[in-house]
């Protein structure tokens, strides 16, 4: 969360390019944004609340500039809490992605030492801590190293040093990547924002990068020793995803799902097949993910149990600690993550590695942290997913496991195309749901993760409380909520038809309107969306209907489809 982009240029360069870079990073947070640049030996900052709406016209040229788009953690959404943050002298500016866990202790110390703290952020404290060390005669670089070692938690910081005209970047957990070109050098949270960089260097945890007029240098934060770094050519990296003919990235990403699956079929899952071979040899197989990726893990788990005939479980990365003591060398971890930067997932990987487990992953973002720390990594090849709500990556995550298990995807591709062509079928349903505050989505067995994912899409995109749940669980409590105003979507797979129709009847008997997503129109359904494919394709078809439904409700409610409130695409804080 939070996006960082900065440059040091050999010649003056329009500072507005930082704004353009921030636009590409806005998916990481859009509560507020800010830019600091060097002008006439002074640091000048602008800050705005909310999304990056209109390009500033009054930004000058500068050789040094740094920007930040914020997802608020410490302190409300105010200009004062926006980054960059400054020290008391105004000479040190910095931007930050992460959470400083020993914030209270550091704030108490600084307040006692009479620093003028003007924001509620944890970020500002770092500027004051650096200031103190510089006042005592330390170089900024040494001060950044020492202060960074005091910070607890996962943090990425970029400090602007106006005296020596340079940027100092340091990180643990949250990503930072350097971009190199003949005209300017860059630092950013994501490759996407690296300007016209020709090569990149990936900053690892515990490394500090200096971008100065002498070029780029990386040192070890602990001992200050220089670290030789590999430079990667930018050519084969997709830097930007354009919206093209679509009204939103959500629409684009839902519509490109058939092409994503075609690509997955062509690539034939070389790495995922290796992961499945490893799974056969291991005693324990644990899939790990968050949000949508966790639900894709649940889908895969059901299939792996059937195929491997052994215990396979899916664990929420944020709940991984419960299982850590059971891990050993005969454990295979399969991480699912679109961004490859989700901090809960990275934290789980570190703990699993310490126990000797083998780490494998299914990742969409190239050069991401999870890809780098995995023993085997299957790339999703989805192309950049920009909408905060995941769609194509979920369908792709399901598909790569299917490819490895020998399932043919060709009919699935045709059926998704058919659904996309017939998406108007959901219009009356979307209208009906858009007037409600609650929605229930019921599934069993293989359809339970789809019910959960569908509910998540509806929540994120329409702000309607949607509850995805196991049909069998209804009578254990939730049925108390069902009345004649309720709408229940019932997901019926071939293997659970009778049980799901029973769930449909239970809610219908209490007056609920029942929408069936199923192979056949049944009497219990008031409304019906068809699944046309064979058993292996049922989940994908159902989820595409639910994605379209969420998109339409979002549209009817005139909400932002790409940037739902309070969320960010890449969750790099715990
Ligand atoms: C929901 C959504 C999130 C992510 C979750 C994990 O639409 O996008 O729930 O799935 O934050 O993100 P990744 O897959 O990047 O680890």
Report what the structure shows.
- Residues 275-414, 429-564 form the SIS domain.
- GO terms for molecular function: carbohydrate derivative binding; glutamine-fructose-6-phosphate transaminase (isomerizing) activity.
- This protein folds into three domains: 3-236, Aminohydrolase, N-terminal nucleophile (Ntn) domain (Glutamine Phosphoribosylpyrophosphate, subunit 1, domain 1), CATH 3.60.20; 244-407, Glucose-6-phosphate isomerase like protein, domain 1 (Rossmann fold, 3-Layer(aba) Sandwich); 423-561, Rossmann fold, CATH 3.40.50.10490.
- By secondary structure, it is of the alpha/beta class.
- It has 16 helices and 24 strands.
- It is globular, with a radius of gyration of 25 Å.
- The chain binds fructose -6-phosphate (F6R).
Hetero groups bound? fructose -6-phosphate
What quaternary form is this?
Answer: single chain
Q: How much β-strand is present in the residues?
A: 15-25%
* Structural class by helix and strand composition: alpha/beta
What is the CATH C level class of the largest domain, in words? Alpha Beta
Q: Considering DSSP H and I runs of 4 or more, what fraction of the residues is helical?
A: 25-40%
CATH architecture of the largest domain: 4-Layer Sandwich
The structural domain count equals: 3
| Rg (C-alpha, Å) | 25 Å
Q: On the 0-100 scale, what is the average pLDDT?
A: 95
CATH topology of the largest domain: Glutamine Phosphoribosylpyrophosphate, subunit 1, domain 1
Keywords: Aminotransferase, Glutamine amidotransferase, Repeat, Transferase
Protein name: Glutamine--fructose-6-phosphate aminotransferase [isomerizing]
Domain SIS: 275-414, 429-564
GO molecular function: carbohydrate derivative binding; glutamine-fructose-6-phosphate transaminase (isomerizing) activity
